[in-house]
Amino acid sequence: MAKKIKQFRKQAEKAARAAKSAADAGVSEELQALARAFQSQADVLKSKKRAGKKQR
What we know:
This protein has 56 residues and is an all-alpha fold. The protein contains 2 helices and no strands. The longest helix is centred in the C-terminal third of the chain and has 31 residues, at 25-55. The protein starts with a helix and ends with a helix.
């Protein structure tokens, strides 16, 4: 699961960088939303991972 979390965070960083360099405002907003979605997914996986450790 740690690998997936890392992958989502990496994709979030890539999308955020692309959003900053996008010339079109609409594209930039979509990429920012994508970055937030990737970050949120990583956060969800991390919290699930923590919850799993607490149950042991």
